[in-house]
Amino acid sequence: MATKHEQILNYIESLPVGDKISVRQIAKEMKVSEGTAYRAIKEAENQRLVNTIERVGTIRIEKKRKENIERLTFAEVVNIVEGQVLGGRDGLHKTLTKFVIGAMKLEDMMRYTEAGSLLIVGNRMKAHETALKAGAAVLITGGFDATDEVKKIADEYKLPLISTSYDTFTVATMINRAIYDQLIMKEILLIEDIVVPLMETVFLRNGDTVSDYHEQNKRTRHGGYPVVDQHQKLVGIVTAKDVIGRGDNESIEKVMTRNPISVNLKTSVAAAGHRMIWEGIDLMPVLNETGTLQGVISRQDVLKALQFAQRQPHHGQTIDDIVRTQMRFFDGGEPFVEFTVVPQVTNQFGSISNGALTTLLTEAGSYALKNNKRGESSPENIMIYFIKPVQLGSVLTVKPRVLDMTRRFVKMDFEVFHESAMIGKAMISFQLFDR
């Protein structure tokens, strides 16, 4: 049976998109305390089922699929530009397809303005009315108001009419930045992207026996299984080493490992993989916020996902992406890397930033390990010594050298040169992924 928290989440998800909800309303409808209702609404916000807007309230929004995450709802635009909703509140849940800057004649402006778009314009009253009638929302910059007639049209067409104190250029930059940030987020693999869902997950119950484990093992050939109670809450995990030497009639609850390491759906795949390698585990349960089992991931799932991600095109460039594009790899007796310092990787003094240099060194180390047929790796401990600043436009040479290598760990030394002068040294230890 679902808990009250889960029942409230299911109720919120069943509401029509665009409906307003409140703590008091949920508490009354579901017959729970206001504290329980508040926590459930916050969880619904984390799951992107609702969005809370100042002076507007909490609105049920459409849960966006990951492939469409680069699109923003008008409610999110209100938050981004710190705007005030003048009309059309019932359309805040809608998604904008593009934004148009109204810096041209009205007839030219309307050629680019279509249903689902957002017109960003100043106090041009005729443009407000024409855009709304064309099916577009309107964002008024400079803190200007709209006429009562335009507000009435916005309410009638259910298209948001928003006012912000920022100028047009600043607003366009803020929205573009938000879309760009979400493009980067789109590329980050999360556990929800690779999890084996609950309907396909084989699990045992705490009332089962070792004999039940052996039956499942014969049927599925899996080495480990999560263990749940009658409410589908995770209570442990059982693997082959837990049942060795145990009688068939012994309870799973007695042999299982309690409080196993787990992740949630929003954990990054990279973080989960690092934890699995560090802890030496091959299977990890995936839970929701209430501790209910949602599925499992294996080490093989993580490695396949990371290898697949490396082959995907990148839409939003992070600092790491910029560093990689400036690196040139050279094989030989001892591999080395050349790197050009570009403006995007410098600090306020015009020299390479600490973060960019760290990325450069870890990427050079990973390259050297791959060149040494050691496969994928993850940096664990880093010590960097700066000898002199590295100016914009400098071409650096990084020489990685393996000091010590075991099956799971590698210690490496790095020397960084500009022309013939050494400008930095580093020592990094890496964890190795099983090939």
What does this structure look like?
A hairpin with a 5-residue loop joins strand 15 and strand 16. This protein is 36% helix and 25% strand. The protein has four domains: 4-60, Arc Repressor Mutant, subunit A, CATH 1.10.10; 66-184, HprK N-terminal domain-like (Udp-n-acetylmuramoylalanyl-d-glutamate--2,6- Diaminopimelate Ligase, Chain: A, domain 1); 192-308, CBS-domain (Roll), CATH 3.10.580.10; 319-432, Thiol Ester Dehydrase, Chain A (Roll), CATH 3.10.129.10. The protein has helices at residues 4-14, 23-30, 34-46, 74-80, 106-112, 125-133, 148-157, 168-187, 191-194, 210-220, 240-243, 252-255, 269-279, 299-309, 319-325, 354-371; strands at 20-21, 50-53, 57-60, 84-87, 99-101, 118-121, 137-140, 161-163, 196-197, 204-205, 224-228, 234-239, 257-258, 263-264, 283-287, 293-298, 327-330, 336-340, 377-386, 395-405, 409-418, 421-432. Helix 2 packs across helix 3 (34-46), helix 6 (125-133) runs parallel beside helix 7 and helix 13 crosses helix 14. The chain has a six-stranded antiparallel sheet with strand order 17-18-20-21-22-19. It is flat. By secondary structure, the protein is an alpha+beta fold. The chain is built from 16 helices and 22 strands.
